[in-house]
Amino acid sequence: MEKINFRTKVLSRHLNHDPFNTKNSSKNPFLQSSPCLSYTPPELSEPNSVFDVKLMRKLMDGHNIVDRDWLYNLMVQSKLFNPQEKGGKIFVLPDYNQSMEQQREMTMKRIEYLLDHGVFQGWLTRKGPEAELRKFAILDVVGIFDHSLAIKLGVHFFLWGGAIQFFGTKRHHDRWLKDTEDYVVKGCFSMTELGHGSNVRGIETITTYDSNTGEFVINTPCESAQKYWIGGAANHATHTIVFSQLNINRRNEGVHAFIAQIRDANGNVCPNIRIADCGHKVGLNGVDNGRIWFDNVRIPRENLLNSVADVSPDGQYLSAIKDPDQRFAAFLAPLTSGRVTIAVSAIYQSKISLAIAIRYSLTRRAFSITPSGPEVLLLDYPSHQRRLLPLLAKTYSMSFAANYLKTIYVKRTPELIKTIHIVSSAFKATLSWHNMRTLQECREACGGQGMKTENRVGHLKGEYDVQSTFEGDNNVLMQQVSKALLAEYVAAKRRNKPFKGLGLEHMNKPSPVIPSHLTSSVMRSIDFQNDILCLRERDLLNRFASEISLRQAQGESREQAFVMSYQLAEDLGRAFSDKAILRTFVDAETTLMDAPLKNILGLLRSMYALVTLEEDSAFLRYGYLSMDNAAEVRKEVAKLCGELRPHALSLVSSFGIPDAFLSPVAFNWIEANSWSSVQH
Ligand SMILES: Cc1cc2nc3c(=O)[nH]c(=O)nc-3n(C[C@H](O)[C@H](O)[C@H](O)COP(=O)(O)OP(=O)(O)OC[C@H]3O[C@@H](n4cnc5c(N)ncnc54)[C@H](O)[C@@H]3O)c2cc1C
Fold first, then answer.
1. What is the mean pLDDT of the segment spanning 355-373?
2. How many Å lie between the centroid of ligand 1 and the Cα of residue 194?
3. How far is the CA of 335 from the centre of ligand 1 (A)?
4. For residues 561 and 553, what is the distance between their CA atoms, to the nearest angstrom?
5. How far apart are CA 208 and CA 60, in angstroms?
6. N or C terminus of the chain with fewer C-beta within 10 Å?
7. Relative to the CA of 191, which ligand 1 atom is closest?
8. Percent of the chain whose pLDDT exceeds 90
9. Are 579 and 537 in contact (CB under 8 A)?
10. How far away, in angstroms, is 202 Cα from ligand 1 center?
């Protein structure tokens, strides 16, 4: 196997500093305006970057760099990861020429390969922040190769394994965790039904208790109660967590979680279980999503995951949490890790697509702007910069946000649970939406090449689209964020106490004043950026609370009032998320000692903040920005594009994604498409 050079090579520096590359056109064959493009695509060389790319990569990845590089290597070394030579380089490419069945089997084989190499050691049996961060790092890298592989692992370890860890007690931990880690059992997670997804409390599967035999009886009472979309259920899973209403002594105690076996060790479906396939999907076809019906399936009493509530042998319902709302909330806890991984993975996909599109835009030319001049590099068009560089800055900002989210998650304490729930909901939605937008822009920025599956960006759209739906639909999550902010507001006002937590402390201070005339230096200052994002959040929260209370005063229920105030709720959710992201950026930036890194991060932060002002019409609608200031912001964004342009390549190199995990269009795309590369 050819040794892969993981160093991401970059364009020679002179290309970066001469916007239209007029000076060097006679020397560089790539710059000739020959009608026949007989140039060799640029032999890329490491730029004398103004900042330390390795240091930036460390900051971006945040943790477990050695583990990440080890895993990249492990994958590239195996034929299972589909290494292919294109244009003189090796790429590990997704399985787009295989049937759904082949993709599913290949996903399982890859898992076995990683298992054999000890990748999952300690995933469920080792505890503490370090072990959890390693797990996250491994999942980041796996997802950079293939979403199906990451999701298949996520379902088994985070959903099935996480449910046993969080909802189960010692007896479940002893019985299941080691076997899960070793893949002796293959787990899945049956929460969603055909008739109920976001509204988990509405599920219709019913479980009753038979005190004569000491068993629970799980039943699918109607077609809409069939479990749907269950990852792993169609082909491989042997066991599942079943979410069901628990009916004890004719009283519904609400949603609870049980362990049920669905296949034997030979893969035969168990008695009284029916399983069907969800069929081909727009992406993620390496995951076998299935549907499950339970026909009065009997399971031992001990299979109730009983950390929240239990049923005694004689059929008494026992729970320390008396409030059904709180009980239900406790059952959703494992979903938080899913949201964390989605938020993080969304950012890595944005990084892949930006690395590819920006590298292409530094090697692809189109039209000349002088009669006999060379054609212009795509990234030298200000309009192309405007399309990609704000997304690059946002991806950097959200990278800090994702790292922050991971950190608070692995260091969670009971006091942090609420914050983690709200921040993970907001970031999961915002980062996955950002990813889809970035993928589309990068696909278009690669022109026709973006349509080639081997170039990854277009393919990633189908693969990652589902991120806005599973583990909490994005719109529903954002509603929960606004609801939680409203609850904080009401509680603070009712107690007449200062705001504390969720970053709302700024509400205790006087409202910030935005200068009537914005200069460049003001717009680039952390104070201004922070002030205006806080101003938007506080004003929207006040408006939202007023509208709800007005509607209630007019006779609407609290729930009706909330539903009808959806516009403000949406605006507020976005305001919370954008401001929280900026905060994570500022925290990362201000603790840095390295001046060149700080400078470039300053540009990226300003781009993030200003483009946020530009994109949300709330700033003009509610007057946080005057028309004149809005025009100044727009000009400043264009200026920042020009200033970031020379650093574009170093900035994507800093993502630390090995060349093999990018795509041919990001490198020597002429050679990758040469006649000699065609299989004759
Ligand atoms: C590929 C894939 C894998 C999956 N894997 C699993 C798995 O392993 N296990 C599992 O249990 N589930 C899984 N799911 C299910 C997933 O979690 C659900 O699809 C998700 O929760 C959304 O539910 P739903 O599809 O019923 O959509 P709905 O909840 O019906 O939502 C449909 C639309 O209605 C909107 N909507 C819903 N409620 C409101 C409201 N109150 N106000 C305004 N708008 C609203 C939503 O924003 C959404 O746009 C998977 C799904 C997919 C597609």
1. 94
2. 10
3. 13
4. 10
5. 50
6. C
7. 11
8. 87
9. yes
10. 13
pTM value is 0.94
Give the model confidence (pLDDT) of 564-615 as tens digits: 999 999 999 999 999 999 999 999 999 999 999 999 999 999 999 999 999 9
Q: How confident is the model at residue 20 (pLDDT cuts 50, 70, 90)?
A: very low
* pLDDT greater than 80 at residue 518: yes
The residue whose CA is least distant from atom 53 of ligand 1 is 466
Residue 438 annotated as binding site = no
469 CA → ligand 1 middle, Å: 5
Tell me if residue 547 is catalytic. Answer: no
The span from the CA of 22 to the CA of 370, in Å, is 10
Give the DSSP letter string of 241-301.
Answer: EEEEEEEETTEEEEEEEEEEE-B-TTSPBPTTEEEEE----SS-TTS-EEEEEESSEEEEG
CA atoms within 13 A on the CB side of 84: 14
CA 510 vs CA 379, 450, 507, 534: distances in Å:
44, 49, 7, 11
Strand partners of residue 260: 240
Q: What is the pLDDT of residue 328?
A: 83
- pLDDT reported for residue 48: 60
Length of the chain: 680
Burial class (CB in 10 A: 0-12, 13-18, 19+), 462: middle
Cα 191 to Cα 228: distance, rounded to the nearest angstrom: 8
- Determine which helix (DSSP H) or strand (DSSP E) holds 91, and give its type and residue range: strand 89-92
Confidence (pLDDT) at 332: 76
Pocket test for ligand 1, best of 152, 200, 470, 481 (most atoms within 8 A of CB): 470
> Hunting for tokens 């201004």 — which residue is that?
528
Asked if residues 355 and 607 have their Cβ atoms less than 8 Å apart, the reply is no
* Cβ-Cβ contacts under 8 Å for 246 (sequence gap 6 or more): 207, 209, 252, 253, 254, 255, 256, 304, 309, 311, 317
DSSP 122-172: TTTT--SHHHHHHHHHHHHHHHHH-HHHHHHHIIIIIIIIHHHHHH--HHH
Give the number of other CB atoms < 10 A from CB of residue 578.
24
| Domains assigned to the chain | 1-20+41-145+334-504+521-680 (1.20.140.10), 187-327 (2.40.110.10)
End-to-end CA distance of the chain: 23
- Beta-strand ranges (E) seen in 263-397 are 273-277, 289-294, 297-300, 309-311, 317-319, 365-366, 376-377
Residue list, ligand 1 pocket, CB within 6 Å:
155, 189-192, 197-198, 229-231, 281, 284, 289, 466, 469-470, 473, 475-476
d(Cα 439, Cα 428) in Å, to the nearest integer?
A: 16
Q: Which residue lies with its CA nearest to atom 16 of ligand 1?
A: 470
Annotate 217-232 with b (16+ C-beta within 10 A) or e (fewer). bbbbeeeebbbbbbbb
pLDDT digits (tens, 9 = 90+) for 34-78: 334 444 445 445 456 789 999 999 999 999 999 999 999 999 999
Q: Over the stretch 610-645, which tens digit does the pLDDT of each residue have? A: 999 999 999 999 999 999 999 999 999 999 999 999
What is the tens place of the pLDDT at every residue in 135-149? 999 999 999 999 999
Which amino acid is residue 508, in one-letter code?
A: N
Q: Establish whether 370 is an annotated binding residue.
A: no
Pairing, β 317-319 against β 309-311: antiparallel
Both tokens of 517, joined, read 């005339």
What is the spatial distance between Cα 129 and Cα 461, in angstroms, rounded to a whole number?
A: 32
CA separation for the pair 343, 335 (Å, rounded): 13
Helical H segments across 554-617, by residue range: 558-564, 566-590, 595-615
- Catalytic member of 463, 471, 488, 632: 471
CA atoms within 13 A on the CB side of 182: 6
